Amino acid sequence: MLDQEYERLVEYLQGMIADGVQLVHGGNLFDWGDTNILDLLMEIQEKNNEIKDLECEVGDLLQNRYTGQKSGVAYINENHVHLLPAEKIVIFPKDKIWQHYKKSKPGE
Question: 30, 53, 76 — which closes off a domain?
């Protein structure tokens, strides 16, 4: 899955910035602050923090952020959240659940 590669890319960029790597374009030096990269990295970090703070409980109704499909939380263990969509049970990695789902209320 690409999530791991994206996370590594963010880590590499943050490491380059922390190490003082300079950027050159057309023979001219410019600062990281002259790009949108710093803002994007901050936005990614904020979203990751929001995702990590979310918790779900058995009985919650979740909605897939991409497909819109709603699923009920049937069971939670240490690593996975078991979801009951209309068709079948979905087993999802607990640490990735908020990247694909958001909490939803019945009738929404």
Answer: 53
